[in-house]
Amino acid sequence: MADYKRPTVSIVGAGNVGEHVANLIAIKELANIKLLDLPKKAEDRVFEVVKGKALDMKQMASAIGVDVEIEGYTVTADGQGYEPLKDSDIVIITAGFPRKPGMSRDDLLSANVNIIRTVSERIALYAPNAVVIVVSNPVDVLTYATLKITKFPKNKVMGMAGVLDTARFKTFISKELKVSVSNINCFVVGGHGDEMVPLISASNVGGIPLTKLFSKEKLEEIIKRTKFGGGEIVNLMGTSAYHAPGASVAEMVETVLKDKKQIMPCSVYVDGEDARFYEAYDVCVGLPVKVGAHGWEEILKVELSEEERAMWHSSVKSVKEGIERIKELKLI
Fold it and tell me: Is the whole-model pTM more than 0.85?
């Protein structure tokens, strides 16, 4: 009998989101984990923080009786040290810069696409059969860049956005109605940003449409809070969220590793008949897709109301502008 080989998930970027993804994968005992990140410099010292975090999590796993391997690897900004990506089943990209004061949107795009280029080239070299999940922002644009740079089949690359946005939408519905989130069925699609599109016409609680449960004013209030859910947390903490994003990525990882065929909203490349149906061409944007062992397998075609379609077109236009901008800047 052949030896059992536990799946391997590699996470590039061991900041708040990356380490929370690793933590949840370990607790759920889904896979062995490899964390890759740059060293941290402080005055005259260099800290290999990623190795320390991996060791800390490995000891946590021992404390709760979980048998997974967790290793940390220090890499360089110019792409050295990525050999541990070899044999990864899934690679998650959380590496990237937040926008800083004085930094233009083009500066941010340039910095993050250059990071994505380095990482994507190493993924293609060392883990050519992996499913890639992009978390770095702007996620739809960077998912597109990852797809083009790796040259992977389109189903092998997807961005995490709609899973998180939908979780926020469910949270606010649940709090308002005092009902279990497990009874709430909804999707948030479109670009991951202020122009995301909650699909009200396809959403319900226990089969009852949202429009029967909320007044128009209350529903608009919940939608607004969902759209600015990330900003609300930044205003409270002074930094981006990481518990909910980490859990959202872990949910995607589990769906792939267990071949669950779960329907979840992910940022994916739209072409062919799907592009014609959604009127979205040569773009990565959030749509409900069936996710399984080989990545995403199928885009579901959801009929949009007239109002939803107008918001959808606006959202797609916004993402498309970002993609066109990185082309103009010759970043891909």
Answer: yes
